[in-house]
Amino acid sequence: MKKQTAGRDSLGDFAPKFAELNDDVLFGEVWSREDKLSLKMRSIVTITALISKGMTDNSLVYHLTTARQNGVTRTEMAEILTHVAFYAGWPNAWAAFRMAKEVYAGDTEAEEHGGFFGMGEPNVSFAKYFTGNSYLKPLTDSGKTVFIANATFEPGCRNNWHVHHADKGGGQLLICVDGEGWYQEAGKPAQSLKPGDVVTIPAGVKHWHGAKANSWFSHLAVECPGENTSSEWLEPVTDEIYNALED
Q: CA–CA separation, 155 vs 73, rounded Å?
């Protein structure tokens, strides 16, 4: 998450200790423990707690917005609020739905993402190399021809830094087909991606790619033929690097 300053901005002069606990402990430490609980799950827990207490004010709007950024889809949010209604009260859920509709205005169902080629299935085989949820739809058979797949990233999702190795040839092409995303090579500024953009990734180059914080993103991944090709997965892209990106 981005460094929180809301406490100091609003209460820094009046209640500096409360502001410090809000910004540095609650958001700086508790929300940052992603190795224990993902940001997406923390958003779901927080929204449930607020609605259960009848807190359908600006704080809920903030956490609904944060949940969307942390990968909670429109479909998932509708199901979460429907479920919570039976435990936290029908009026509370109604109030939350009105806010959620505004936060998710313009979003489409997950099944509509992926562009012309469609979203495919959850990318479970490589999930440990991604921050957030991704989906994969193979378009060719890797054993018989050049392997091409449509990769789709939920908002905020990105893969780890990685390198495509090859003794000769190799590398990868990204052909952007839907939404907006990022591509970055180590030591270079990130490149904003939109449908129609093509990225050429030579073998041996450390890089990552994924969706922008507020947009789904899909690209065709084309594995270039080569000798002794392989992929080396490295460390995750930190929130500090990702949240500092600007269009």
A: 9
Q: What is the pTM of this model?
A: 0.59
- Per-residue model confidence as pLDDT tens digits over 53-71: 999 899 999 999 989 888 7
- CATH class name, domain 33-103: mainly alpha
Q: Where are the domains of the chain?
A: 33-103, 110-243
Spatial separation of the C-alpha atoms in residues 189 and 194, rounded to whole Å: 16
Q: Specify the length of the chain in residues.
A: 247
Distance CA 166, CA 24 (A): 45
Q: 110-243 — its CATH code?
A: 2.60.120.10
For the four alpha carbons of 110, 115, 121 and 124, in that order, the dihedral sign comes to negative
